[in-house]
# Entry
Amino acid sequence: MSRMAITWLVLSITVATPFAAAKAEVKITPDVVYGHKHGLAMTYDVFRPTEKPNGAGVLFMVSGGWYSQWAPPESMKPFFQDLLDRGFTVFAVRHGSSPKFGIEEAVGDVRRAVRHIRSQAATYQVDPERLGVFGMSAGGHLSLMLATTADAGKADDADPVLRVSDKVAAACAWVAPTDLRIMVSSDPNRLPAYKNFPALVMEQDAAAKMSPLLAVTPDDAPTLLIAGDKDELVPIEHSKKIKTEFDSKKVPAEFLIIEGGGHAFKGDDLKRAQKAMGDFFESRLVKPAAEASAKAS
# Structure
C-alpha cells in the first residue's frame, strides 16, 4: 500500500472509532455528481440530520496525501456524528486523486464542489452563506485554499456552476500543510518522507501558487487551526506561520495545539479536537443566524 493510502486509512479509522455509537438519524444521499473530468464523474455524499437541522452545511475534504478515495457513505457516518448531532448537514467531497491528478487540479475540483453545493443549497435546505469546510493533512490544505482564495464566480460563464461563488464562511484545518515550497521535489532540503507523495512533484512557482500561507488577505474566512506539537510529517510550524499571517491581516483565527500530538490524534486528544471544531462551526455558522433571527422577531 502506498504511503498516501496508508495516511488516509489511518486518519479514517482513528477519527471514526470514538464516534461509532450513532445518535442523530441521518438521510444519506450518495454520489451526487458535481462535475465531470476525463469522462468520469466527480462526486460528493450528503449526510442530512432528519431532526432539528440547523440550516448550515460543512464540507469535508476527502483527502490524505492529495489522494481521494471512495468509501461506502455508511462507513463514514460515524466520522461525522458529532457534527450531525449538532444539526449540520455534511458533504463528503472527493476530488481528482493523486497520482493521476495534481494539487492544482484537486484545488480546482473542490472549488467546483463548493459552487455546486451553493447552487443546490435550497435542495439541501442549507444557507449558501453558512457553509464551512474542514479536512485533515492534505484535506486541511484544501480547506485553507478555499478559505484564502475564494472568488465570486464568473457571471458570464457558459457553465452555470462556474457563475456561483466558491466562498466558505468558516474553515477548520487539521495538521495542514500551509507552505508547499518547502515540501515539493524542487526543494533539496525537504523532509525525506515527502518523496512518497507524487502530488509533491512540483516546481517552486507552482508550489507558491498552491500555498495558503502566501494567499492570506483580510477578507479570508474565519479559521480554526488544529495541530500536534510532535507532528513529524507536517510540523506544527506550518500552522504557527499561517496563524501569524491571519493575525497580521486581522482574520479571525483560533489555534488548538494538541500537546504531544502527532499527525493523527486518538483518544482524549481526538475528542478534544472534535469538540473544538464543532464549537467553532456553531459559533461561526449557527450563532450569528440565531442572533439575527432573534433581533428580527
Q: What stands out?
A: The longest strand covers residues 26-37.
